[in-house]
Amino acid sequence: MSPRRAYASVVAAYWGFTLTDGALRMLVLLHFFTLGYTPFELAFLFVLYELAGMATNLFGGWAAARFGVNVTLSAGLALQVAALFMLSALDPAWSRVWSVAWVVVAQGLAGVAKDLTKTSAKSAIKLVTPEGDSGTLFRYVAWLTGSKNALKGVGFFLGGLLLSAFGFAPALWLMAGLLAFVFAAVALSLPRMFGKARKASRVRELFAKTRAINLLAAARIVLFGARDVWFVVGLPVFLYAAGWSFAEVGGFLALWTIGYGIVQGLAYRIVPRSPDGLSAEVPAARLWAGVLALVPVAILAGLGAAPARAETIVVAGLALFGIVFAINSSVHSYLVVAYAGSEKVAEDVGFYYAANATGRLMGTLLSGLLYQVGGIEGCLIGAAAMLAACCAISLLLPRKAAVVEAPAT
């Protein structure tokens, strides 16, 4: 199988996984909100999901380089199937404490599954792009990232629809069956050695990254924390409390995520490109980080000026936030593969997305806590503070890539 055909198989698997991942998040969030869980308890359900992602991204990149992308991708799909079946076994007669523990563990499996799959797919981009072709690399990254998020939006809608139409457990069974089919197709189609490095790093070398990768990882933490601090719990609960139905909440978040994905996929047309792949793209990252930091401040100002129109202001503000955030995210996703070394790209990408998971964990916890304390305004204040930090870190990003030297032995 050619590298491009192998990459196509990875992308197809990533798409199938993404649909179930988006649907699962909406199923869990809406189902347990109707059972009377508080916003902070809802956030806690996703804690192990994000914690697992931190470790999985870091060591999943190392595993992909050592054993091949096919191994980590297949493992991710299999774990997601297991997580779906585990959640479907939840018994309404169980105590609240036992139910929460069961869901947290199942979500932890889903977190490992998601980041094994994501690291595999994003690492494959560098493997099939000609060396030095930064334009093609940016286009591939933007397209994969955008299409993934568009499909995740479809998954949000699918989750709300399946919950309304079939109920919690039957919806999970249906998704598990479809994903098992995807797993079988991937296991049979990918070559065994795809993405395997000639010499994998020792575990202690996973933290020996360039200054550029470290700074970008730090910026990614606060960037995604700023999104999830109001998107994960605060926004869906705010809309449901305002009288929206399950399908309406899921449908709106789906449309937002689809639009966000489309903008991500087109970002390479918006952001200026340079022959070296960094001298124009790094200033663009700084510019768009500054623009994004102003958006939650503007929403807060609107809420203060017209509190009676809070629902309209939040929805319109989310649309603007999604456009600017999508460009930021796409530029970051490109920069990590531009900074990364080709030989062990999976390790660098995994390290970077471990930071991504750290930001999501921080944002998820704060989303429930800040909404419970200060409503949607509290979530927006948290987002504004994190985006100010992202803007400051972006100013330090270097315009040249550097090579990591292995520690002396």
Short précis:
80% of the residues lie in helices and 0% in strands.
Architecture overview:
The protein contains 13 helices and no strands. The chain has one domain (3-195, 205-394): MFS general substrate transporter like domains (Growth Hormone, Chain: A, Up-down Bundle), CATH 1.20.1250. Residues 403-409 have low confidence and may be disordered. Helix content is 80%, strand content 0%. By secondary structure, the protein is mainly alpha-helical.
Write the layout of secondary structure elements.
Elements: H1 3-34, H2 39-45, H3 47-67, H4 69-88, H5 96-128, H6 134-166, H7 168-189, H8 211-231, H9 234-241, H10 246-270, H11 281-305, H12 310-339, H13 345-394
Mean pLDDT: 81
- Mind summarizing the main beta sheet? none
Please state the structural category.
mainly alpha
Run of helices and strands = HHHHHHHHHHHHH
Total domains: 1
The second-level CATH architecture is Up-down Bundle
Overall outline: globular
- Tell me, what is the CATH class? Mainly Alpha
Query: Cα distance, first to last residue?
Result: 38 Å
Oligomer: single chain
Q: Please bin the fraction of helical residues.
A: over 70%
Question: What descriptors fit this protein?
Answer:
409 residues, mainly alpha, Growth Hormone, Chain: A, 13 helices, disordered C terminus
